[in-house]
Amino acid sequence: MITALGYLVWNWALTRTGASRAAIFITVQPIGGVLLGAALLHEPLTAYTLAGGGLIVVGLWLTVTGRA
Predict the structure, then answer these.
(1) Could you tell me the pTM of the whole model?
(2) CA–CA separation, 40 vs 21, rounded Å?
């Protein structure tokens, strides 16, 4: 389900911006999967899961802001 939602958002983003700009946001898909898994399937949020999500967010932030 999250994969289908991810691709819908991806196509929506492509209509509003270029492919290179929209491509960086596809990395948010695993975070959505983890959150849905925790909410709907009661999967545990471990420290490794949270750290991985944090790394994704930091990487996305660095990409968007252009900082090295």
Answers:
(1) 0.68
(2) 31
b/e sequence 33-65, b meaning 16+ C-beta within 10 Å: bbeeeeeeeeeeeeeebeeebeebeeeeeeeee
Q: Which single residue is written with the structure tokens 């991810």?
A: 6
DSSP per position, 7-26: HHHHHHHHHHS-HHHHHGGG
Ramachandran category for residue 66: left, alpha or beta (phi over 0 → left; psi -120 to 50 → alpha): left
Which structural domain, as residue segments, surrounds residue 6? 2-65
Mean pLDDT of the chain: 85
Q: Any residues with CB less than 8 A from the CB of 63 and at least 6 apart, and which?
A: 24
Q: How many domains does the chain have?
A: 1
